[in-house]
Amino acid sequence: xxxxxxxxxxxxxxxxxxxxxxxxxxxxxxxxxxxxxxxxxxxxxxxxxxxxxxxxxxxxxxxxxxxxxxxxxxxxxxxxxxxxxxxxxxxxxxxxxxxxxxxxxxxxxxxxxxxxxxxxxxxxxxxxxxxxxxxxxxxxxxxxxxxxxxxxxxxxxxxxxxxxxxxxxxxxxxxxxxxxxxxxxxxxxxxxxxxxxxxxxxxxxxxxxxxxxxxxxxxxxxxxxxxxxxxxxxxxxxxxxxxxxxxxxxxxxxxxxxxxxxxxxxxxxxxxxxxxxxxxxxxxxxxxxxxxxxxxxxxxxxxxxxxxxxxxxxxxxxxxxxxxxxxxxxxxxxxxxxxxxxxxxxxxxxxxxxxxxxxxxxxxxxxxxxxxxxxxxxxxxxxxxxxxxxxxxxxxxxxxxxxxxxxxxxxxxxxxxxxxxxxxxxxxxxxxxxxxxxxxxxxxxxxxxxxxxxxxxxxxxxxxxxxxxxxxxxxxxxxxxxxxxxxxxxxxxxxxxxxxxxxxxxxxxxxxxxxxxxxxxxxxxxxxxxxxxxxxxxxxxxxxxxxxxxxxxxxxxxxxxxxxxxxxxxxxxxxxxxxxxxxxxxxxxxxxxxxxxxxxxxxxxxxxxxxxxxxxxxxxxxxxxxxxxxxxxxxxxxxxxxxxxxxxxxxxxxxxxxxxxxxxxxxxxxxxxxxxxxxxxxxxxxxxxxxxxxxxxxxxxxxxxxxxxxxxx
Length: 713
Description:
By secondary structure, the chain is of the alpha+beta class. Among the domains are: 29-161, Methylamine Dehydrogenase, Chain H (7 Propeller); 458-712, Alpha/Beta hydrolase fold, catalytic domain (Rossmann fold, 3-Layer(aba) Sandwich). The chain contains twelve helices and 43 strands. The strands form ten sheets. It has an eight-stranded mixed β-sheet, with helices on both faces. Strand 21 and strand 22 form a beta hairpin. Helix 7 (553-567) crosses helix 8 (584-595). The protein is globular and about 75 Å long. It starts with a helix and ends with a helix.
């Protein structure tokens, strides 16, 4: 009511799609921040928009003032700018990346330069575009990957040595991951120097048995190109992965026999605090058993130290941390919630560090001086995040953040300070500096008050957080109403969801770009709501993993039930309920308009999976096993098999160059709809990937969706 009054007393400005996609409402962030070894300074990458120069500047944690500059291209000959940088372990040298060329979601190749911070000498590492260059611990060498082979460059002698020779595109990969590892296991660099710099452990992928997928890229030439790459769909052959050890002195490479495994993944390798002991994680194809293995780099012997099992699946994380005595930190859902555990070097459990009906959502690290671990969790509610510290014995827990909302920390190297990024539904991102020992505020670094001033003339509606009782659970929900909302009127409802396993769309955080679009729709008389149903994350393993082997079943039941319950509200028009989503959310929106055709009258599916048989092995089989084992789970929950149920208005959208959820999903769905003689709308964005962006693409897409909603809901 107060919002309506404020609108009445001041002229309200309506937001436009052009304004949303112009970046007018974007938040300011700290870019490429890295803590220096001294623990009292950090570096950031700066770009001068006027001159085009790039620099890496050093700032004091305590004062926030710039103390010095490590490199500035205005003082360099032969290098005008760079897009990324990495420091050597002792921070005496830098790698500067220029002219990046994207490969897939996380991977790219670039031209790299070596910059000596003391001498100011700049050296071109290679004339070739290479991947993942990494200094050895003593800075004397750099390992990198070119054309699927690993090379070692000698910094002193200015020479390179090729250490693998069988790399071949779409066949053998050394030192970087294949498509499915990169996409679903979240890493690209698949080699690691040991602490002495005399061994390199690396993964080798034999893709020869993996089926190829091809996409026509139309471009602007007379004839289109074809992109061909290895993509293992559910139930098909994966790459044969193997672990290898290279001895720098002898130049010998040895394949490591990890044990009696077949059809498995190696999702992580990491050196321990012992110079010649490597840890490797081996995950079976069903992903319900993970072994942590210690590999001796001197005699190549192996030992299983820890085995993690789960009836559904085991999550792979980057939380493994080795302490000085080689005991280690591990996170697990074994008690029903994700928590921190401390193990001895031999794999014997020393202590469960955190406990409770809440989730550890981020592990930041361990400070040996105070014997404290730092982590983020949902102890203050599943839509919130707070930062805590705790001793390794599980005692002395301290909450280090005070404001209720989403807090995320970035700690200095010595755990003296942390920079806290805070947001909630009322507050755009703000950055503050705190003492790690007690959370005490040191100073404010950056806020987004200017954004709030920009927003004032629009009188945006708040994003209201609540819960909705559905199918025996209290589901998290947000809702956005028109700014002139009147309880006596009836409004059409548009529901958004993603719904993927372990995801979260309802959080105590400020507007993102889609939220501004929802404000535009609210201005035009729509209510927008989002409900996180079963299968989503941060409410315990049982809530998340109930969807196992039935992706889309329980998630859809919850969206249908939520829509029915919302439709019972006096101010919701139950005959005008629509739903939309992207990727997994597009899969769900498609199912909703088909299986929920008595509830939903309109749906928009962007880049949807239409049959899980079309998607990749690692993601799909993690939740569904293989189609050969679970045919009914695949087929009964895939929208392509339910096209005959379509009654409402349906828009399906896809990017023609989507290497993730292939256009095949939409084309096969379109053909099924045609043969069922069902009318629908569809749009293909030529050559665009899973994000469907570039130039005016997003503006065009959201204009199309807006018009579709206004016409059909």
